[in-house]
Request: fold
Amino acid sequence: MTVTADHALAAVDFDTYLRMIAAFTDDELIPGEPEMVTSGGVPDEIVQRMAELGLFGISVPRAYGGLGWTMEQQVLLTFEFTRASCVYRSRFSTVIGLCSQAILDHGTEEQRREMLPAMAAGRRVTSFALTEPEAGSDATNVQTVARRVGDGWVLDGTKRYITNAHWADTLIVFARTEGSPAEAPEISAFVVDTTLPGVSTRIPDLMNGHAEGPVAEIDLESVAVPGDRLLGSTPGTGLAAAMRGINHARLHVAATCVGQANRMLEETTRHVTERHQFGAPLADLGVVQAELGRCYAEMEAGRALALDAARAFDGGTVPRQRISAAKLYCSEMVGRVADRCVQLLGGEGIVGPHPVPRMWRDVRTLRIYEGASAVHERNLGRAMVRSVAAEGVLPDSYRVRDASSDEPRGGRTT
Ligand SMILES: Cc1cc2nc3c(=O)[nH]c(=O)nc-3n(C[C@H](O)[C@H](O)[C@H](O)COP(=O)(O)OP(=O)(O)OC[C@H]3O[C@@H](n4cnc5c(N)ncnc54)[C@H](O)[C@@H]3O)c2cc1C
Reply:
């Protein structure tokens, strides 16, 4: 199927759109990988095509110029476009996953109308600037300070590891109000245009993986931000905005892991079928078949987990613990799959331009961002202890509820 830029996307049904994105992946993204690697970044023409195809707006409601696909549909789309390098996805991930959701959930109606249509069209690239040198897994330890000056704010601080920040038009910056108590800081989110005096970004000298989509460090030096650039109208609601949007982003990451595993397994299965040793294809060896089969089963488990959490999400509740479990499992799964695929490629897994070793390096980061694996494990364990103590059942329990009381059947009664 040929993808054309003049598609009236708003009139396209989901199945047709999914086929368009699958075709874009096969015809443009995957064949474009060598050029992306050589040039060291996602080429502008590809970014333009992503914008034309509506990829910056898949999660943005139609009322604000996006395509408004459900979470299940977003996950299905992600399975497709992440068969190509996950660096392509990162080019629009901060718009669809984190920033647009924070604006939707916590922005004023004026902020939504101003920003979301341009973001959905790919004309306004946004970055989510939360992490700092002293605030990684512990996001509440943000040291960037927001000082009230007249009707506005002045921001000072440093952010690091921020995806797309070097070419972003706008940053969503998280900062603590100057003078708020260290034990319970008032953290707010600010919409900061990168053209404002005092904003500077730089990319690191070396990326070990995800090399074509480098993160950036951001310096904010006495950046004067008008009062209406506070996200929402109440200072101190910033972290809540961040955490709500992170659920979307985590599900997108879980789906990304599945897409990457799928591609690596197709590439590797092809390799072991064509590569002969001991007078026969490697694929004839029982141990090789078993390795492939194990990977396939794990990928399918991850796929089911991501889809199940997405469906629960579309059902009206945000199943935070199940989303966390999906992100944890899928990112660990793709790490195991990548490692086994590299092993099955032998020397080609280390030497030369095969896509699998590049993806092996790229997917390593998926166990670190959107919550490191150990943090998800800890949070899940804590949520289980709390939930069983309070209700007698696990968090986000699938167990049948009593129609009369909405209590889980057989739950704690004392
Ligand atoms: C490619 C990439 C893109 C990124 N993009 C963004 C972005 O767009 N915006 C943004 O704000 N941030 C971004 N980040 C930052 C990312 O969210 C952080 O790297 C992540 O939260 C971990 O923080 P840290 O690197 O400071 O590691 P640390 O917090 O120092 O943690 C290091 C390790 O310590 C262990 N650990 C830490 N805390 C605990 C705990 N409580 N329990 C058990 N173990 C623990 C874990 O094993 C963890 O991996 C990105 C990072 C990368 C690598």
